[in-house]
Amino acid sequence: PVRHHFIPRFFQKRFADKSDHLMVVPVDRSPPKALHVSDIAVVNHLYTSVDEEVGETVGVEKLLAVVDGLASKAIARLTGGVFFPPNNDDRGNLAMWFALLYVRDPQSRRVMEALSEETFKMEMSLMASPEAARASLVERYGREPTDNEIDELVDAAQNIGKYEIIPHQSDFIRLMLKVSLPLMVSLSRRKYSVMKFPESGIVLCDKPMVLRQYSANQQPLRGVGIDSADEVMIPLDRKTVLVLHSQSLVGDRFVEPPPGYSISSLNQQIVGNAIGEVYCHPDDLHRLDGLAFPAPNQPLLQVNGPRMFGGSTDGVNAPPVRKGPRRYRRRTKN
């Protein structure tokens, strides 16, 4: 099976330092374990798509590998400080890598699944009457539907809450690539601040891009995304964190940690962003002591208001029963 590193291996090795192993610490605080970086943040066939003409294809896997290779060289130049500020090529390559890093993990796929299912069920619930079903079928096919077609649609709409509705994996791969394009544009406009700490100790998690919004800009009913975040923080190694911002007066520069901002402060932000796992160098395991970990079982989505259909969508307003996304399985020949 094709093994997909949703946190690229080269990125993890920067935290493993001269070793090839990292400590894996589950957010439920079960005992940590040491794993080789080749076995961390790996999912089989996560981006194996199906093409109508060629069948199974790992083209997207190869695309991600190319993007990872370009980013690896750019990050090395960025942290070394010799070629700073980054040139346009490095900015473009890093913006592409950051955008894909934000959406390429299994949790993002699982959220896409839940959102797609919830949306489909809400739309279907509007067709639970014969009149609504008939109008929908006329709009779709451009002809008068038969009584049997109307009855089938009404029956499906009235019982939609009993089913799990998951689009094909290839649809989600196309969506990932489509979503990453505007994210890349947004990230390419930001300034680069490289913050280096005098000692090692920065950790990593399975959702490594931390979005920070200043308290003055926070709105109670609005989430924080790439566009609305005041800062996008990406730890680059055990000493270095990159801060993408939009402050022209600050611009592109190397900065020292502000007074009172320690590695522990940064690690708390990183750990708080974790979905299921935190990763760190064995020498940095003690730095997780005293940090607040997120709840291990959280809903994928929160939807306010009354549900418009019977039943529920797994992961909406409650922790999901199925933790991972549906994955493509090769068909077996009889």
- Major sheet: arrangement of strands: 9-10-11-7-12
Given the structure, what is the number of helices? Answer: 8
Report the radius of gyration as a whole number of Å.
23 Å
Shape: elongated
Number of strands: 13
Helix-residue proportion: 25-40%
Order of helices and strands: EHEEEEEHHHHHHEEEEEEHE
Secondary-structure-derived class: alpha+beta
Distance between the termini: 20 Å
What proportion of the residues form beta strands (DSSP E)?
15-25%
Identify low-pLDDT runs.
none
Mean pLDDT: 92
Largest sheet: 5 strands, mixed
Please characterize this protein's 3D structure.
With 334 residues, this protein is α+β, with helices and mostly antiparallel strands. Helices cover 36% and strands 15% of the residues. It is built from eight helices and 13 strands. It has helices at 9-16, 59-80, 88-103, 106-125, 130-141, 147-158, 169-188, 263-272; strands at 3-5, 21-26, 33-36, 42-44, 49-51, 55-57, 191-196, 204-205, 210-212, 231-235, 240-245, 253-255, 277-280. A five-stranded mixed β-sheet has the order 9-10-11-7-12, with no helix packed on it. A hairpin with a 4-residue loop joins strand 10 (231-235) and strand 11. Helix 2 (59-80) crosses helix 3 (88-103) and helix 5 (130-141) packs across helix 6 (147-158). The longest helix is centred in the first third of the chain and has 22 residues, at 59-80. The radius of gyration is 23 Å and the shape is elongated. It starts with a strand and ends in a 54-residue tail after the last strand. 31% of the residues are buried. The mean pLDDT is 92.
